[in-house]
Amino acid sequence: VYGASGASTYSWSTGATTQSITVGTTGSYSATVTNASGCTGTTAAVAVNVSSSMPSVSIAGKNVDEGNSGATALKLTVTLSSASASTVTVQYATANKTATAGSDYTAVTNSLSFAPGQVSKKVTVQILGDVTVEAAEEFYVILSSPVNATLSAADTATVRIKNDDVAAAIIAAT
Asked: CB of 120 within 8 A of CB of 82?
């Protein structure tokens, strides 16, 4: 079999008509069967198309009220598209958009591990409250480097921190 990682040789028992072949990535591969019984000549070419049977990993965004002080834990859900028989790991990290790490939220870089059979885990980010009247602000939580899974199109969550402060009205006496 020849593919993305070079050439490999596989063999199977006499009389077998199918053989499972493990490859590391999805894509197209070509295979040449030699000395095959029932083939015209001694070589037969076959096309092999490989699709991923690994689950994909995604993360959902949220809207959250800012709060007036302290830190509030925001939990975001990270989901596998299907259960895996293998342990799945994925890295995650926050990134500024209009919100600023350190004043609007606490930056996080870490990893999650899904045990075989698990399909949902939580990522926690601390939202930092204040009393400043400001527009809503956003930041990202980005998934990367999955092991035994692929990234789905939803590999980035947008978190919107909604301002819950109001401007004080000043009334002047006349």
From this structure: no
DSSP 8-state class, residue 108 = -
Question: Mind listing the pLDDT tens digit for each residue in 115-160?
Answer: 999 999 999 999 998 777 778 899 999 999 999 999 998 999 999 9
**Can you tell me the distance from the alpha carbon of 105 to that of 138, in angstroms, rounded to the nearest whole number?**
10
For the beta carbon of residue 92, count every other beta carbon within 10 angstroms.
24
- Dump pLDDT digits (tens) for 56-88: 999 999 998 888 888 999 999 999 999 998 999
Beta strands in 52-152 (DSSP E): 56-59, 62-65, 71-80, 88-96, 109-114, 120-128, 137-147, 150-151
Which residues, 6+ apart, have CB-to-CB distance to 21 below 8 Å?
1, 8, 10, 31, 48
SS3 164: coil
For 112-134, give the DSSP string: EEEPTT--EEEEEEEEEP-----
